[in-house]
Amino acid sequence: MDARDRLIVALDVDTEEKAVSLAEKLQNDVRFFKIGFELFSSCGPDIVHKIARTGGRIFLDLKFHDIPNTVSKAAVSVTRLGTFMFNVHALGGYDMMKKTAEAVRAEADRLGIVRPKVLAVTVLTSMDENALKKIGVHDTMNSEVLKLATLAKAAGLDGVVASPSEAAFIRKEFNADFLIVTPGVRPSWSDAGDQKRIATPKEAIINGATYIVVGRPITGSKDPVSAAKKIIEEMRS
Question: C or N: which end of the chain has fewer Cβ atoms within 10 Å?
Answer without folding.
Answer: N
